[in-house]
Each structure stands twice: as C-alpha cells, then as structure tokens.
Amino acid sequence: MGVSDYPKQAFVSRRWWAGIMLWGIWLVSIARTGYAAPCPDFTWQHPPEMRQPDVLHEVQKALAARESERARRLLSTYLDQVPEGLFAEGARFALAWLPGQHDDRENGFLAVIDRLEQLRKLKPHSPYAPWALCWEGELYRQAGWHVEANAMFQELVETYPASPLVGGALLGAGLSYLDNQQYLEAALVFRRIVEEPRWAAYHLEGALGLADATALSGAWPQAHYWYQVVEAEAPHMIRASVRSTYGAALAEWHVGDRRRSIRRLLLTVNLYPRDERAGDALNRIGSYLLAQGHEALSLWFFHEAAVRFDRRAPGRRAQAAITRWVVSFLSRRPSEDERNRFYDRLDQLGIYVPLNWDGVIETALVLKNAPEPELVDEAKLWLAQGYEALDDWSAAVAAYAALASSFHEPRWGKVAQTRLKHILMTQVRAYYARQAWPELIAFHHAHRTEFLVLPPDRELMLMIAEAYQQVHLPERALAWYSEVLREYPHHAMAEEIMARQMLVALELPDRQRALAYATAYREAFPHGQWRGEAAWILGLKALDEHQVSSAIDELTTAVQHARDRAIRVRALRQRASAYRAIGQLEQAIQDYRQLVDMPDSSIDDQVVLADLLYEQGAFAEAARRYTNVLDDRVSPDVAVWVQFRLGLCHQEMGNRSRAIDLLKRVLVENIEDPDLEKIIHRTARAALNVYQSGMGNP
Fold this sequence. Notes:
The protein has 698 residues and is mostly helical. The chain has helices spanning 15-25, 54-64, 68-81, 86-97, 108-122, 129-143, 146-159, 166-179, 183-195, 203-216, 220-233, 235-239, 242-254, 258-271, 276-291, 295-308, 313-331, 336-348, 357-367, 373-389, 393-405, 410-433, 437-446, 448-452, 458-470, 474-487, 494-504, 512-524, 531-544, 548-561, 565-581, 585-596, 603-615, 619-631, 636-652, 656-667, 674-692. Among the domains are: 186-265; 619-698. It contains 37 helices and no strands. Helix 23 (437-446) crosses helix 25 and helix 33 packs antiparallel against helix 34 (619-631).
C-alpha cells in the first residue's frame, strides 16, 4: 500500500509516522552482509597431512576475534622459535598483514602494503602471494586510492589467473570503480563476474554491483532487473547497504512502481536515519505527495528532512521545497480564512511553516549562500519576489539585478531579467506617458547599473532618446538613436529613427551633422515617409551656398511631402523668399497667398505679400492687405512702413487726400531703425511736395 492509500485520518498526527518507523525497526538487527569481502581473512595453507601447531590455532582464534595485538605476540613468539618452514612462511605473511606497533595512525595502511609487497616479491610462488596481492589492492580501495587498488587487482588477475582469489579481485576492482564513480567500468567488471561460471560464489555480488552501477548511471530498467535478481535470492544483501537500498528504491520509482519504491524509501530512512540518502528519500516522498495534492502531508516530510539534516544538503533542499510551496501558496493570494485553515492542518501534523513573505525572505537569505548552485539561484529569486510583494521596491530591484547578473542556470537569470524589466519599464512608461522628460532621464541615470544587466531594449532606448530630444540635449539624443540603429539595424522604426536624427541634429551649432543625417536618410529611403524633411534640410544647405534653383527644387519637395506641418510652412516661406530673390515675383506671390490664407499666418507674411503686390502694380489689393495689417496690433516700425506703403498705394490709385493724410502721419512717427526712418521720411516728403505744388501725381 502506497502513501496515498493511507486513510485521510492517518495523516493528522505523528502517530502514523511512528507506526511506519516501527515497521522497519526489526530489519536493523538483520546481519548486513552486503557484498562479500573481496579478500578473505588470513588462513593457513598446508597439506592435509601436516599438523598445525597449537599456537597457530590460537593465532587463528585471535585473528577471528580481531585481537591483533595478541595475534602479533603469538606470531612473533612462534617465529622466534621456528624461523623456517611452511608455517613460518605463513606466519610472516600474517604478521605483515597485521597493523604494526609503530605504523602511522593515518597512513598505517601504507606500511602494511609495503610489508606485504616485500614478502610477496621475495616469495612470488608462495601460496600466500595471491592473498597478499589481493589485500594490497583492498587496503588501497578502503583508503580511497582507487587507481592503485585497481592496479593491484589487475596484477593479481594477470599473474595468478588460476587462483581462487581472482573472483574476489574482480569484485574488489568493481567496487573500487563504483566508489570512484566510474560506473561504466564497474558495470563491465561486475558483468564479467556474473557471466563466469567458475566465479559462481561471487555471482550475487556481481549482480548487486551491476544493479548499483546501472542505478548510479541512471540506467533504471537495467538496474531494476538486477535488483530483482538479488532480491529473489538474497534480499538482505540489498538492505545491508544504504547505496543499494536507496538505489533499488530509485529504480522502482523510475520504472513506475511507486508503491514499492515508497516502501523502500521509508526503509532507507528507518535503516540509515543519519545517511543523507535518508534525507533524499524523505524529500522524494514529499515531492510525490505534493504532486498528488497532499500539500500538508508533503510539508511534513519536507519538514522532517529539514530538521534531521539541518545545515546539510538534504535539509537545505527540503527547506527549499517548503519555501517553493509557500511562494506558490502566497502567489494565489489566499484569504485570511484559507491561511488560518492551513495553519490548523499543519498544527495537527505537529509542524509550523510560516505562510508569509517575511518567512520566505528569512529562508531565502540563508539559502542564497548554500553550496548547491541550483538552490542559490532560486533563493535569490524568492528574495526578490518577497521584497516585491512587500512593496520594498528598491530591495526588489537590487535582488532581481543581483540574480540577473550572476546565475548558475540561465532560466533563473531570464526570470530575474523579465521581472526586473517589468518593474523598471513600468516606471519608465509612466514618466513617458506623462511626458515627464527630466524625471525619466533622472530615473534611468539613477538605475543605470540595473539597466545594464538587461538585454538591450529598443523601446527603452527610443524613450530615452526622445526624452533627451525633448529637453534639447541633441548630442545625448543622437547617441541613443545611434545605439538603437547599431543594436537593431533592421528595426521596423529604422526609417523614423534616421528621420529623428536629422531633425535633432538641426539643434547643433554645426549644420553639417544634420546634412549628413539627411543625406544618409535619402540614400537609405529615397521614397521614404520623411523625404520631405530631408529635402528641407538639403534645401537649407543650397540656400546657404546661394544655389537658389537647387534650393527651390528641394523646398518644393519639402512643401509637398514633409510630414511636419511646421516644416511645410517654413519650406513654403523659404521658397517664396527664394522666388522673390531671383525675381520670380508671381511664384513668390502665389506662395505668400498660401501663407496668409493659413489660420496662423504671420503679420510679416501679410506685409511681404502686400509689398510684392505693390511692386507688381496691384495697388488696390496691396492697399486692402496693408489696411488689414493696420487693423491688427503691430509694432510701431511695421505700422509706419505699412502706413507709408498704403499712402503710396492711394497715391498710385489717385486718392490724393487719403495719400496726403497717411504720408503726413508717417512724418511724425519715430522709427527705431535710423536708416529706414531716413528713407521713409525722404520719400514721404517728396510725395507731399509734389501734391502741395499742385503737380498731381509724381
């Protein structure tokens, strides 16, 4: 029966767990043979007809009882009395195998190996030589010197292929590979044991080795098969090793036998409560229960692992699992009643888990310093999420930026970048929507470090460029527009960005930059939407160079195609002025007529149009337009000029009295421009003198 099959009421107290624990306690007392020893203890080798001395029987008893000091004394005494012979030879090998009185405590095994090797080389044909070689390998293996161990085992197999110890040597080599995480090599050796009939005594050990090796390499179907082979013959061999017990549980898990796997995971916890794999077993059960919807019970298993293995890897992973669930729970925005009901369920299970963001932050601050990289990234994310949920904006931004700039798994870095971008861009968009340009620029500058950990963002870059454009910092604006084009050369807004560049550059003292941008735009988009603006800028260049005909062509394009009405109006006025400069007054008059017909026409345009009409002899229309100007509030100088010209118009039209009246009025006006004053006064007096002399029109 699996965990999910237990009655619901069984989950509401810790008595259920106590019962499960008692279920496996009896197994602890079972003899844990596990793998057979690769090398047998010392035994005397002699013909059956030879009688073994009594003292050597005592030595055998001392060795069996692990009384090494007594065995060494007995052997030394025997060798003093009988220095030669077959039994003396065995005694020397046995004495070399025992720890010496003067051996180093930490590396005493090296002294034992050295003694065995010397004897073996002196007597390579001794019946004890294969045994000594086997133990050299085993001592290296037990010390974790796997390369040296395998060299010894390999030498035994090659030097003494007929020895009954070859099977043990292969077993030792397989275990050494297994301990050294060389799972493929281990599997090959164990399979060799299983397939060789003469090593039948080691077949079960070989099968268990194959099971462990394939499990550790993740070949779960094969591992499950070999664990079943061992289970059928000697189940105690699996239970005798935490590696095998946990490996068998994982194999059952991965082949889909979850009920048997959970029983074996619980067995791992019962038999090896202090081994970290017991913590892994608790975490796996917790994850399974969580996936099945048993949230409170899953938290109990995680909590148990966190308490038992505090400050150890399984405990940290358990705490991470709890925090992961709490973050998910809080993200649902539970009501206070939901929170309290869950607290009651946890209380029934005898555990406490803080269901608030403060608890998440507290745990995340610990886990972000964990040695497990996969926990560090997620802990940093939880820390940022906690600060964000508690409206600690600055701390959240800093935490997201820290994760986005330093992560072990790219997926967590991307999550952090996404959240950081959302937070920062929300504020940037708010400033942009309000057209709060100085605030937008200041915000970006204050958080430039955080923005640097984000990938280039065209929306942000364009908003910053526009902000600098709006506050009339053209160099900064141009730099940002150039950055956008560099990062996104095929951007959908590339044409508009190039158009903005040429218009922003007009604010620079040197018009050459604007001309360069306009030329680049025309080359890239000869029929583009902003070809009118480009033509206007190029027309200004032509005017500066007195290329009036070329300027008129460019200004005509600007008038026809410029998107910006202000530019169209300026281009029209500049074209009219150019026509006037080259004497094409009719075309100039047409342009000025368009200008003065606009709702926002200027006084200057009306005066210039009236002047052109006067110069063309259209005195009646000119007089009407001059009169309209006088009806508006105009500067004194303009008023004097208009009165003067209006007087001349009436003079030309034969309105003598009106002309005299206007010209007299001009003579009493003060004009700020002395040169203009002289011209107007002199011309007005001359006209009046003609009238007053009775000569009629001058």
